[in-house]
Amino acid sequence: MPPRIKIISIFICVILVAYVFELVRRRHLNEEYSMGWLVTGTIMLIFSVFDDLLIWISDLVGATLFTSTLFFFGLLFLVVICLHFSIRISALTNQVRRLTQHVGILYRQKTELESLLGKQPLKEGAANLEKL
Amino acid sequence: MTAASHETLAPPVRSSSPVCYQNTLIVIPAFNEAKNIGTVLDEIHQELPGVPVLVINDGSSDATPRIAEEHGAQVISLPYNSGYGVALQTGFIYASQNNYTVVVQMDGDRQHSSSSIKCLLQEAQQEDVDVVIGSRFLENRIYKTSLARKIGIFIFGKLASILIGQKVTDPTSGFQAIKGDAIKFMASDFYPPDYPDADFIILLHRFGYKIRELPVVMRPNVDNKSMHRGHKTIYYVFKMFLSIIITLLRQKPGRK
Predict the structure, then answer these.
(1) What's the rounded Cα separation, in Å, for the pair B94 and B88?
(2) Nearest by CB to B77, which of A93, A97, A126?
(3) B26 within domain boundaries
């Protein structure tokens, strides 16, 4: 691997790993999601430092250029992480659906209770929901 | 008790056994139906006085919840528009929380004639039935809808009919009566997130619930503003096939 690209590559990997750490520290990123990025960053770093390893793998998978190996695994990683996100989004959607339904029911029960207690209901009824 | 007074008010509908409306809840999901919801509720009240009606206001921006309340319905308002299936399922959750034994679901756009509710309820009284579907097509009643829609209903209806070994002509019907355990099933996570269709009928059947279809009178959609029918055709076809295949691949569950 040409030394220039090696340095750039190592540099990018170190920045990525450090940035993910910082994000987790600041609670911008949950540990759960940091895993994938950290593992990928570390693997990329290992490949950048020991580029013989990369060439060996290129031979193994039959790639003529080590860059193809990089791109291939890069794409693979993106596919996996996108799938992971789709799964998470589906779960979140279902949770939001449940919440929406229960908020609606609870709000009604709250209004019922208020009228039972003879309390003045919050004005405009459902409009309050939007302010929540 | 109160049921007796209902029976006297109800005109005798070709019935041998009197229909009991105790523990019955009528659920109407409504999104911007201010124009129609009042009429719908009045008609229901005339047909079935004393039967509680629950309107699920699916984040309407117009006066739907206020009008519904003025016309004697209970109203649950969802904080934002969440779609037909979500609104409808809210009704089932509410019904199962409050131990209702029969739920009638219908649309708030005057498409479903309230005179058919009694027929649905009467059919639901039978021993061996859990879900009664009011079909628009069973007796070739006049019902106008787009051609693509008709083809879709026809194909997936046929597919469902073959798979469950029973005639299903209108799997998308929003006019149904659901009884007993089936209400809890509707409130569970098995309920499709967007809207129930032929795939859900197949799922119901696999879970051992008995389905029956009944011809009902439908007015051609007054405003032609359907809630769950405005989806993209290609996505719809894809989703239905996928969903049916996945439903079939799921392990056959034992009935709880």
Answers:
(1) 10
(2) A126
(3) yes
Provide the β-strand partners of residue B112. Answer: B218
B193·A105 Cβ contact <8 A: no
State whether A100 and B82 contact (CB < 8 Å).
yes
CATH code of the domain covering residue B62: 3.90.550.10
Give the number of domains in chain B. Answer: 1
Say what the ipTM of the complex is: 0.78
Contact A105 B78 (CB under 8 A): no
Q: Give the pLDDT confidence of B162-202 residue by residue, as tens digits.
A: 888 888 888 888 899 999 899 999 999 888 877 788 888 88
Q: Let me know: does B156 contact B188? Beta carbons within 8 Å.
A: no
In-domain check, residue B142: yes
All residues of chain B having their beta carbon less than 8 Å from the beta carbon of residue A107 are: 76-77
Per-residue pLDDT tens over the stretch A16-41: 999 999 999 999 988 888 888 888 88
In a domain, B254, yes or no: no
CB atoms inside a 10 Å sphere around CB B2: 10
Inter-chain touch B77–A107, beta carbons under 8 Å: yes
At residue B215, φ and ψ (nearest 5 deg) are: -70, 135
- Cα Rg, chain B, nearest whole Å: 17
DSSP structure class, residue B114? G
Is residue B140 left, alpha or beta, with left meaning phi > 0 and alpha meaning psi from -120 to 50?
A: left
Tell whether A126 lies on the interface with B, counting CB pairs under 8 A: yes
* 3-state DSSP percent of chain B in helix, strand and coil, to 5: 40, 15, 45
Q: Does B61 touch chain A (CB under 8 A)?
A: no
Which residues are B134's β-sheet partners? Answer: B214
Helix axes B117-124, B34-47, angle to 10 degrees: 60
Stated length of chain A: 132
CB B195 within 8 A of CB B228: yes
Specify the residue for token string 């034994």.
B101
Q: Distance between CA atoms of B250 and B114, rounded to whole angstroms?
A: 37
Domain of B109, in residue numbers: 2-249
